[in-house]
Amino acid sequence: TASAVTVRSTIRRLREQIEV
Predict the structure, then answer these.
(1) What is the b/e burial string over 6-20, where b = at least 16 CB atoms within 10 angstroms of the residue's CB?
(2) Which letter does DSSP use for residue 1 in this model?
(3) Closest to 15 in 3D by CA, of 3, 2, 7
C-alpha cells in the first residue's frame, strides 16, 4: 500500500528535522 510508504517517509523526515 502506497499509504504506508508515504506515512513512513513523512514520519522519518519529520523525525530527522526535529532531531536537528
Answers:
(1) eeeeeeeeeeeeeee
(2) -
(3) 7
1-20: pLDDT as tens digits: 889 999 999 999 999 999 87
2: its cell numbers: 502506497
Amino acid found at 3: S
> Which triple of cell numbers denotes residue 8?
513512513
How far apart, in whole angstroms, are the C-alpha atoms of residue 12 and residue 7?
A: 9
Quote the pTM value: 0.33
- Interatomic CA distance for residues 4 and 7, integer angstroms: 5
